[in-house]
Amino acid sequence: SHIHEQNIVHRDLKPENIMIADDGRVVLLDFGIAKSLDDPDAEKLTATRCVVGMCAYMSPEQATAMPLSPVSDIFSFGSILYEMLSGQSAFPMDLKGLSLLVQAKYSPLASRAAGLDPAIVKWVERCLAKNASLRPQSFEEVHEQLSEWLAEDAMAVLKRHISESADPTHF
Length: 171
Known about the structure:
This protein is 42% helix and 6% strand. The protein is mainly alpha-helical and 171 residues long. The longest helix is centred in the middle third of the chain and has 17 residues.
């Protein structure tokens, strides 16, 4: 959320770039391909209209070298949640996966994570919407929803599904 307040898009959100500090705070790492939306020269840091990032987690707009916004990182976050909950990537890391990503087509989360709360499924799928305007519009909105589930003890459901379905050595 803080980087988005600075009008920066990370562009490389993936499990390897997210750490949990000893005090429980989530810390983002590797800002090597982050982009300032305020800096007209930012494109010079990478090739203009060049696709950068890991295809399994990038947004459709990033995969097609279209203009990005902070909502692009929310798609990436949704891809990470999908994988955490199902134990499988929503978008394989190959050319077929890139094609599916551009179309935002993936196996329904409910079919890969049986018994998951339908509200969580719907919310993750909202993060993975091809149309950026249909995704949560800020990480503040994401945080509010996660906090609400925490208050409702839905995080117990998330933790159970993560521990049952995900390879703990993968993250």
